[in-house]
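Reply to dn_fold:

You asked what the input looked like. This is it:
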Amino acid sequence: MNVIIKLDTFVYLFFFLISFCKGLSLEFDSKLYLLIYTLGLILACFRLIKLKYQKREIINVGILLVVGMLVFFVSNETTVLFTAIALMFLKNIDIKKLISTLFLSRLMAFILMLVASIIGIIDMNEVSFYRSSIGGFVTRYSFGYSTPNLTHSTFNLIVMMYLYLFFEKINIKTIIVVFFMNIMLYRFTDSRTGFYVLIIIVVLFYFVKKLKKVREKIPTILNVLFLVLILISFLVTYMYGKVNWVYNLDELLTGRIRYMSITFNNYQPGLINKNDYSRIIFDNGFFDLIYKSGILAFIWFVVVQIKTNNYIKSNKLYKEAILTCTFFIYSFFESYYASSIMNISLIFFMYVLFSQKNKMGEVKSEKSIDNNSSL
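and this is what came back:
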């Protein structure tokens, strides 16, 4: 047991390294990222030698690994494969410690990017963007990230992890500080999606913390919210050009629906998709998954997500429920649903992929949460 605990460190290091690299906006085509990823992967694999997987567990993760490899060889798309590899290491891992590791790595990388871009070590990546709502161009800054939206998404991810880790300490001061930082960052990124989604997320976290009825309700709506958002994603795509309000919604979402509609009307997703859409950015995680990875990957994620939602509901895991809920909302506007490094709620898949010896960290009772619900 002591050997396994010590080898757990390699898994946390693996996640720290890849999260830190993503926080520095390094991608798969970066040789440095591949070198660090490979090194971390080799270290994490030492833990597999001491672990024993049940046949059911091997099948659960093995399906996604096989699909991920097929997608990679056919289309060179790495998201599903890298997520499968990450999930493979989660057996008997302490979730709270893992999310703390991801939080620290992302926070360090984000601060480093901000400082480096402000003092001129890296480019601020200034871009001019036309906003039809104001009839003119706005200047947007990404602080070294590939896009201003990614900058704001990274900030939002850090905030979401903070709210999860320090859920019991959320109060009105927390809300004010986050709102202030959100406004300040928005002045530079002009990322409307990131700005408004974070407001929704923070408000949700606050009311889940403050109101017992909301806290009890959140785990019960996960499957409904998940399936409804998927349905709406494809419904508005189909209705684009047919209904005026969808066109108006697309204007608000800066052309997201139009790109999806063109793809939807001209191409049908395959079981394993080819490399036809690798250069298209679908700002919807569910649409992105099925069109870039294929139907098989989409079905696997939907089935496992529904089972995970049911586990969260039956065990009344309020913090896990609100974090999952917020990532569903974010996935409706951004393409990060299938990425375990951006959508950290995928970590909760471990509850249904592996036997329940996983460590959830400290889970406070309902009474304990209520006693800490001060402003």
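The two ends are 43 Å apart (CA to CA).
Hope that clears it up.
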